[in-house]
Amino acid sequence: MAFPGAKRWLLLGIALAILASYLSPQFNRYYLGVIIDVGIAIILATSLNLINGHTGQFSLGHAGFMAVGGFFSAWVSLHAGASVDAVWYFPLVLIAGGLLAAAVGLLVGVPSLRLRGDYLAIVTLGFGEIIRVVAQNTEAIGAASGLKGIPKLTNLGWTFGFAAISVYAISALVNSTYGRAFIAVHDDEIAAESNGIDTTRTKVIAFVTGAFFAGIAGGLYAHHKQFLSPTGFDWLKSIDIVVMVILGGMGRTAGVIAAAILLTLMPEFLREFSEYRMIIYALLIILLMLLRPAGLFAINLKRRRHS
Amino acid sequence: MDWFFQQLINGLGLGAIYALIALGYTMVYGVLRFINFAHSDVLMLGAFTAFYIAPKIEKLSGSQSALGCIMVFILAAAVCAIIGMLIERLAYRPLRNRPKLTVLITAIGVSLLIEFTAQNEKVFGAAPQPFPQLLPEHALHWGALVVSSNDVLTVSVTTVLLVAMWWIVQKTRIGTAMRAVSYNQQAAYLMGVPVDRIISFTFGLGSALAAIAGVLYAIKAPGIEPLMGVQPGLRAFVAAVLGGIGNLPGAVLGGVLLGLLETFAGGISGLSNYRDAIAFGILILILLLKPAGLLGRSSVEKV
């Protein structure tokens, strides 16, 4: 199924984002913060969905790429001086952070994507942890204590602008002739390979693209929270994103976006039960896998597709 | 030279624990072909079982007696064997014929469930608690070398268990069945091997080993807490892959090698901050260069 009127939605999304950013000073600061969290979660979940969902390569290191983009752009902002105030500065530094994350994604992806299933999951988890350990021991980015006082540049406009772009770019990529290769690799790697698809290349492209958007999300996150600590990017953060993809149904863009919104808002509503949040999370994963492995929003008619 | 031998002894003590945990990973992988993420949490549960029953045993058998210590080990192993079988029955068995990814995600879910339930204030609480002393600790001097009696205990318990495992797997009827299930589950089923019962038994055995490793680890560690299993579990998993997953002697070799490597790296200043990264670095190298592990045989994927 093509993405109907995808470009229209993209334009609408960006227009709404610009409008919202003009109105945002009138919003309650707390709600504003939560809504920006939601936007960042949407970028993270859709980018991981390209890797885990559409291409079927289970990655547990997404927080690592987020950390790369976040720490890089935050470090630049802390050293950029007056140019931080320029309009062009923020999108540029975000994209630079994304590109660096993509480069790291390439470094990680080329060797590890030869592996499958369990092994790939473990290796990506390992790489994610290595990125965190390296961040923890690098003095330039504050080592274990992290970076403080990052300028607050993230607003509704940039967040949802980039969210709209990433949803559009990933949907367009998957729905292109070229992008069919992702789904072919997901459905049956051996069959895809014997039909002339360069499976390793396809997987690496998915991985690098996913890492790029994770890096942008990391940059947005850094300039939203104004504080970054390496421990915030451990593998539980990766699990958070994975749960969004699973809950939404792997490879279902709309479902994954809905899950990202739901799972970001849920802890805000369940503040008083926060000590049970992770227990509920874990139970949710197990029950979903036992009862609805195709995701919470999957429609029964479609479930037969990958039997 | 003394430094070298001292690190060697410390490394062996650590490596023996890794080997015990790695055996559990490898045995479960052998029969089910999946990584039991919850294994490291069973280890933690073993340590906590010992933590709660040790004072009660002490009342029966006197303080720090050998008999009481053995009782604690056996009870912890028994409790964890039951927990392991329950996990398999409730979470993994319904997914037996589903895609591997589904089982993997479920295993991560089970692991998180145990960890976060244990961290809750009403269960164990997140704060570390001091582990009771099961046996009086001596320091044995041998020239300039110091050997803790706990290390001697660890290495000897591990050796006994390794021999026992080898005997179970190679010499008994149920061990033969385990090897049959590992080789070809369907063929074993057709030959009348009760596959479900064998898998359940394997989980029980692996979890009992994890529990004993957990108690041994707790004796050496300053305190026990709900996430205590994560680090040794991860290392042991690396050890299992290093030796060739599914291969019992490989798991032991990998465990000892990793224990030694980590102790030596920890002794060199500058490297000690990167200990976690070292374990993962080894894992990544092994998977890329020799994915079947040191002792494993590579298999051809059938279409």
Structure description:
With 307 residues, chain A is mainly α. Chain A contains twelve helices and two strands; from the N terminus they run αααααβααααβααα. Chain A has helices spanning 6-23, 29-54, 62-79, 89-112, 117-136, 156-175, 180-187, 189-194, 199-225, 235-248, 253-269, 277-291; strands at residues 147-148, 227-228. A two-stranded antiparallel sheet of chain A has the order 1-2. Chain A is globular, with a radius of gyration of 19 Å. Chain B has 303 residues and is mainly alpha-helical. The relative contact order of chain B is 0.20. In chain B, strands 1-2 form a two-stranded antiparallel ribbon. Chain B has eleven helices and two strands; from the N terminus they run ααααββααααααα. Chain B is 71% helix and 3% strand. The interface between A and B is large, with 37 and 39 residues.
Mean pLDDT figure of chain B: 85
Q: Tell me the distance between the termini of chain B.
A: 54 Å
How are the strands of the largest sheet of chain B arranged?
Answer: 1-2
Rg of chain A (C-alpha, Å): 19 Å
Which spans of chain B of ≥5 residues are poorly predicted at pLDDT below 50? none
Main CATH class of chain A: Mainly Alpha
**Coarse structural class of chain B:** mainly alpha
Query: Describe the biggest sheet of chain A?
Result: 2 strands, antiparallel
Architecture of chain A in CATH? Orthogonal Bundle
> Can you tell me the CATH topology of chain A?
ABC transporter involved in vitamin B12 uptake, BtuC
Q: Given the C-alpha coordinates, what overall shape of chain A results?
A: globular
Radius of gyration of chain B: 19 Å
How is the largest sheet of chain A built, in terms of strand order? 1-2
What overall geometry of chain B do the principal axes of the alpha carbons give? globular
> How many domains make up the coordinates of chain A?
1
Under CATH, the topology of chain B is which? ABC transporter involved in vitamin B12 uptake, BtuC
Range of helix content of chain B? over 70%
Structural class of chain A: mainly alpha
Strand content of chain B: under 5%
